[in-house]
Automatic annotation (TrEMBL):
The chain crosses the membrane at residues 12-33, 45-63, 75-92, 112-131, 152-173, 179-199, 211-230. This is Uncharacterized protein. Coiled coil: none annotated. Keywords: Membrane, Transmembrane, Transmembrane helix.
Length: 251
């Protein structure tokens, strides 16, 4: 597809094309880059292919560095991540109805059904992007060095207090969102992680009890990298999200 990329996997080449095409379309057609006061609707269509391209590119980079990737190992499971991602992010949108930490400019241009459909498709890209970037981050040398770190108590010992703390944080956030809004992210993890421990699934806690900090460092790094691209590509796109966070409005 792109001969100058040599042996870069074909799905990665497709991903790069999608990123280049829809990055330009989202920014140039919205009019915000040119300073327009009446932006055009573009990202409701362009968000999904842009982030699909990102996810494919990242997966291809993982393949180049490790010799295998999520797509090469099990492409069906990879596709299922898109299905899981949609309801997961709707959960955070539901919480945001209470906290009001972000809203979407251009929302009024869509009916409720249109908004639900376009948003659901866009939300489906979150987990594939984060998980793929986390796996890419796991190949970084500094993250590999966190394999032998401080060991924590056993996951079974921590799971019950962690579960209780998670519900307490969620309750505080819903009660006083102005002060406890940072719990929006960590409370959900504190609730879900113990459930996975009890179900016998792979968890971050099981790695930490062995002193292996690689998964949590890789996931945190993956989230930060995705966050950078989310905010950058959002800046000149329309519709777009805008933050209204207490105490830090000067940002």
């Amino acid at each position: 597809m792109l001969p100058f990329l040599g042996r870069f996997p074909i799905h990665g080449q497709l991903g790069l094309l999608l990123v280049l095409i829809f990055w330009m379309l989202n920014w140039l057609l919205s009019g915000l880059l040119q300073g327009s006061d009446n932006p055009s609707l573009t990202s409701h269509v362009g968000f999904f292919p842009l982030w699909l391209g990102y996810s494919l590119t990242v997966d291809a980079l993982v393949f180049c560095r490790k010799g295998h990737s999520m797509i090469s190992r099990n492409y069906r499971a990879y596709m299922q991540l898109f299905l899981v991602s949609c309801p997961v992010w709707w959960l955070f949108e539901l919480i945001n109805w209470r906290t009001g930490n972000w809203f979407y400019q251009g929302r009024d241009s869509f009916s409720n059904l249109q908004y639900f459909l376009f948003a659901s498709v866009s939300f489906s890209t979150v987990i594939p992007a984060v998980f793929g970037t986390a796996e890419l981050s796991s190949t970084f040398s500094w993250i590999k060095r966190t394999q032998s770190g401080v060991k924590i108590a056993s996951s079974q010992t921590l799971s019950i207090p962690m579960f209780v703390i998670g519900w307490c944080m969620l309750g505080l956030m819903l009660w006083k969102p102005k002060y406890y809004f940072p719990f929006v992210w960590i409370s959900v993890h504190f609730i879900i992680e113990p459930i996975n421990v009890w179900l016998g699934n792979e968890t971050l806690l099981r790695h930490l009890e062995k002193g292996d900090w690689r998964p949590i460092c890789a996931l945190a790094t993956g989230c930060l990298i995705c966050g950078f691209f989310w905010e950058m590509w959002n800046f000149y796109s329309y519709p777009k999200w805008v933050y209204q966070i207490p105490f830090v409005g000067f940002f």
